[in-house]
Amino acid sequence: MREKIIPGRAVGSVRSILAGMGNGSSRHVTILQATLASSAKRRQKSLMKLPLLILAPSALFAFSSIVHAQSASVSVRVEQETKQEEPAGAKDHHTKTQKRTLKVFLTNSSKEDTTVKIKYVYFGHAMTGHDIMAVDQGEKEATLKPSETQEVDTPTSNQTYVEEHYPPGKGIKVKIPASGNKLTGYGVQVFVGDKLMGESYEPFSMKEQMDKAPAAGVAAPPKKK
Fold it and tell me: Can you give the pLDDT at residue 84?
């Protein structure tokens, strides 16, 4: 009588199964060996598929990180030099001059020469109001060699303003109104072609003013009601 092999049942040792078959069962041995070999191959194929499913997301994540690192080839850091002084010959302490220069440090982490465009804006407001405007702005270009860090200085912005005050002395005094513009911040954007590679703002709220603030002397558009 042939031994019936039930699919899915745990297979014991080959020796114990053969012992239950009796003598003269070489054909059964051959069938059993073929069955075990086929089962082992199926199990091996199933296990081989698992690492692919586990590694696939990691591989995609690594690839994404590499592409991002290659595209972000220029880093930006900005320092500002600010001076405030009273103009020579000023008769009171209510007239002041601000001088501000931006030092833009660019680092090229790519293996190729890279030309960048630096857009800078000095923000301020009139002493008679609080609306933000671009009191000075412009663009500069620089070419960076591979792995080079370069400093690019923007032109200095000079702003003189007068605080509202009464003149010194006795007698009837007439209030002297505020005038001029006062610096309040800056914005710097660095482009490679049309792609924004880095930016810096002080304070950070100036970011939304980069393409919005009117130039000094230009009336701001009416606010929407």
Answer: 85
